[in-house]
Design goal:
Blueprint lengths: L2 H14 L11 H27 L2 H6 L5 H8 L4 H16 L2 H8 L5 H13 L6 H14 L5 H9 L1 H5 L1 H22 L1 E6 L5 E6 L2 H15 L6 H8 L5 E3 L5 E3 H15 L7 E2 L2 E2 L3 E3 L2 H6 L3 E5 L8 E4 H8 L3 E2 L2 E3 L5 E4 L3 E2 L3 H10 L23
InterPro entries: DUF222
Pfam family, one: DUF222
Keywords: Endonuclease, Hydrolase, Nuclease
Length: 381
Amino acid sequence: MHPVNAVAEEMSASLKSVCDVNPTFMSADEKASALLSLLEVESRTAELRLRVMAAAGDVAEGEGFRSIAAWLAHHGRVRRGDAAADLRLAEALDRERPTLAAGVREGRVSIAQARVIAAAVEELPARVGCEVIEAAEVKLVKLAVDHDPGDLAKLGRRILEVVDPERFEDEERRRLEDTERHASERQRLRMRAAGDGLTRISGVIPDAVAARLATYLHAFTTPRLADGAVRGALDEGPGASTATGFGSPVNHSRRLAEALGQLVECLAPRRLPIHGGDATNVTVTISLESLRDGLGVATLDNGVPGDGFDTITAAQARRLACNARIIPAVLGTDSEVLDLGRASRLFTRAQRRALLLRDTTCRAEGCDIPGTWSEAHHLVP
């Protein structure tokens, strides 16, 4: 019998001898010792299995499987993805990472740590040279004695800085340039009207853009938090339930959506690119009577080809008018434009300053939020 098979049988027999042993009656010291010893044995046993896998290609060929991973997934009842990952690690330990293989074989490196180290070394560009790559492998194996897989992953991302500081800065610059180029090429944004008054927005954007957007959105959400407890709920992320100043529960994702709407309304049209021969505008058509009364509906043209015209309530149009550039237009009976006036804002910067001097807080009854967080409106429409 081959020594590997003999060891497997001996281990199986030894395990059978403790099948009915209850560890409850072990002392604390015995349990601690057993746990650490079994972890080491488990790691060394896994390394032996991977060593056999790396040499078992003929087993798969003999039964018509594409790889030993596929054979093991079928006969060993393991997930195909897990078997494939084991095969990749087995081949790396057998052909490319002798120092790492020795560490796993001796029980100094766990299988989880070995996966992290192999991935970190694999990420190093070939242009740094074999000596640098080998030095990185040796260093990470030494670090595995004192660091768990999570810490090793962080160290692995900076390992070049440790083993070759002079080359690290140039390689880091190249890596960041490649990452930014990839992000720029892959960025996408889609907007699709759901037909129920909502539009679904999806896509991916570069991290730098996302960070700036998050900062802008938080500028709208954070000042509106009622107290420290609510701020803590905000930090918990999506799904954290909190309450606004009005006492209604609002989760994190809804607050961000509201903040996006406020950010869009605060954009200065004059600073946006020219669109359709004029600064970017959204055209709202509504009768003066409906605008004054807040009743009825208004027609909205967002200028996007194929989107056609939508409708919004007169109350929404009145709210938009408070911070919008208003171009008064007189329409004839057939909706032809008879007179078109100049654009103006109902509330200028100077007017807002005057309002802040007069009203330090919100003028709504029972509301005491600072005036700088409030929006300018007419008390009497």
